[in-house]
Amino acid sequence: MNEIKLPMVEIFETVEGEGTGAGFPTIFVRLFGCNLRCTWCDTPYSYPPEKAEKVMSIEEIVNEVRTYSSHHICLTGGEPLLYGDHSLKLIEELVKLEHIKDIHIETNGAIDLKPFINQITSPKVRYVMDYKLPDSGEMEKMNVKNLELLRKQDELKFVIGSEQDFFTAKQLLDTNETEALPLFSPVWETMPPQKLVEMMLKHKCSHIKMNLQLHKIIWDPAMRGV
User: Fold this and answer.
1) pLDDT tens-digit map of 24-80
2) Integer distance in angstroms from the first to the last C-alpha of the chain?
3) Residue 103, Cα to own-chain centre: how many angstroms?
């Protein structure tokens, strides 16, 4: 595992800020690099023109994860599945850690999930897919076939920046089958949480969960490593 190296941003421990694992102490493993450039991205330090802060072997990553006591891992980026077989190998090695009970992988909808879901069968592993909407500027890059690959343990996140985003996400869910739990996450600057809740109730979105980012409430939204 010393031979396979990945560009990294950071590894740290905090509480998970969103999704079904919100509030659990979690080890964040943030890889460098992303194939998208969303307008509202809150981690622009994780892709060019910024540079990777370090390069680590899979063995080094796993050994650092061992130093933390949390039972949850969030594998994130950037886009943590960007490196194909190398990303697969990292996940397989993290699965082997006995103290880890949950590995949730934050991925965008532009990476084909099929090879990952087919090859990694551990019940520890689940995917949180952030499907991009019109306001992101990257919706045309989404792989809609990923929706049918997601399982009951997975999450399907939509970042809602406008009414157009809301209705686009609703139509996608109405016209595509998925077993994943759908989450609506507001862009606070353009979609106040109260307005999003009102729209969800008005349009009978009873199967969709409102998703607020706890870390942006607890800490300064611009703070890193939390």
Assistant:
1) 999 999 999 998 888 888 888 888 888 898 999 999 999 999 999 999 999 999 899
2) 28
3) 11
One DSSP character per residue, 57-86 reads EHHHHHHHHHT---SEEEEESS-TTTTTHH
Task: Name the region of 78 (left: φ>0; alpha: ψ -120 to 50; beta: rest).
Answer: left
SS3 200: helix
User: Hey, what are 101's tokens?
Assistant: 């009970």
Radius of gyration of the chain (CA): 17
Residue 135 dihedral angles phi and psi, to the nearest 5°: -65, -20
**How many Å apart are CA 107 and CA 15, to the nearest integer?**
19
> Residue 44: how many CB atoms within 10 A of its CB?
12
Q: Sign (positive/negative) of CA torsion 77, 83, 84, 85?
A: negative
Among residues 205, 146, 200, 132, the alpha carbon closest in space to that of 178 is found at 146
Length of the chain as a residue count: 226
Sign (positive/negative) of CA torsion 190, 195, 201, 204? negative
Taking Cα atoms as reference points, which of 221, 130, 225 lies closest to residue 183?
130
Smallest Cα–Cα separation from 76: which of 4, 2, 25, 129? Answer: 129
